[in-house]
Amino acid sequence: MTEITKHNLTHKRFFLCLALAPVLTNVFLILLGGGAGLLVSSVISLFPATSASLEGVKTAALVLTFVSGFAVFFGFVQYFVFGGAALWLLARNSPLSPLISALLLFAVNLSVAGFLYWTGDQQFALLCLTYGSLYAPLWGAACAWLYHRSGQTRG
């Protein structure tokens, strides 16, 4: 017979990892987008013939930087309330895995966006679906990774 076991879950450590995951992930994405934008701008200024083909890459890097800066403010409440509850339930019953956490938060984001779309706020629901489908799995995987890393003892 299958037995359900409860895992030892540290409240402070879990909520700290839950709060730090979006911030650390988005700081990395801001640095990545900013660095890519600077690199592409340097290549364009060194080789002006490539400007037409690299303008899209430069724009994408700048959009990644801009959106990542605001994603924490717009998505944190949804992530903390719905995603945090889902991760908490997952972590109580099994060890957190980055892949499972990412898939879980992707499903939670789809559910919340679907509910918002169904209740009438279609524009906000599409915004949550578009950007949340990128950031929710990243934040879930980062939370699981941070939680796992914070529990390791230093030798």
Structure report:
By secondary structure, this protein is mainly α. The protein has one domain. The protein contains four helices and no strands. The chain is globular and about 60 Å long. The N and C termini lie far apart (38 Å). The model has no long low-confidence stretch (mean pLDDT 87).
Order of helices and strands: HHHH
What fraction of residues sit in β-strands? under 5%
Biggest sheet statistics: none
Total strands: the figure is 0
Structural class: mainly alpha
Number of domains: 1
Gap between N and C termini, in Å? Answer: 38 Å
Ranges where pLDDT stays below 50 over 5 or more residues in a row are: none
Number of helices: 4
Helix-strand layout with pairing:
Elements: H1 11-46, H2 51-93, H3 98-119, H4 122-150
Helix pairs in contact: 1-2, 1-4, 2-3, 2-4, 3-4
Quick structural gist:
The protein is an all-alpha fold and 155 residues long.
Based on the model shown, name its key terms:
155 residues, mainly alpha, 84% helix
